[in-house]
Amino acid sequence: MCSVSWIRGRGSLVVVMNRDERRDRAPARPPRLWRGGVEAFTAPVDGQAGGTWIAARDSGVVLALLNHQPARGAPAPAASLISRGRLIAALAGEAGVPDGARLRDAGLASFAPFRLFVAAPAVPPRVFTWNGVALTSRRLDPRAGFLTSSSWNPRAVLPARHARFRAFRRAHPSPSRRDLVAFHDEASDVRGGAWAIRMSRNDARTVSVTAIEVTASGVRMRYRAVR
After folding, report:
1. What is the pLDDT of residue 36?
2. Total structural domains within the chain
3. CATH code at position 207
4. In terms of pTM, does the model score above 0.90?
5. Which tens digits make up the pLDDT trace of 118-163?
6. R_g (Cα) of the chain, nearest Å
7. For residues 45 and 83, is the Cβ–Cβ distance under 8 A?
8. How far is CA 77 from CA 29, 81, 125, 156, 203, in A?
């Protein structure tokens, strides 16, 4: 359960992500600089499993992970799955742009289904989808776009949120980072909080908003816990 959007220009990239989590999950810790791999990166820390859900390398590559519904006929999850946040932390610390071969080498059967967003100012955005059976990938709109997930009523909620993003783009043909953050902060919907971009249900809610801006002058990550 998460939402991520991006705007990409000549030499620049903005990525904003809402993290939606269960209300009983341990609070996350704010972003810090991670070292130890080939590349250093900045990322918040999951308070329960120790990994992360969004990371920005010093080189400008951004990775973000969303939940995904398993495919029909997918085998039952392994008894002890590895946290998907640990996969993001491992990939972010490596050199090069993650690809299908690297993801397959990670042992996907050990992870619950997910979608992995990858982009940089010099790397067109792409999403890799692991549905519990197969890994696929597709290119995304290189200028601006939106991905979202919901464990509740996804067949209705996801199209509704995408429609809201299309309306946002019509109202903001050249959105700024602030515009994108404001979109991710929309907490009202006539159908209820579960439909909103900043969602809220009895069992889950948006717990943080992370905004990453990559320009020629460097990489900046802004993080806000949602109370």
Report:
1. 79
2. 1
3. 3.60.60.10
4. yes
5. 999 999 999 999 999 999 999 999 999 999 999 999 999 999 999 9
6. 16
7. no
8. 28, 7, 29, 25, 22
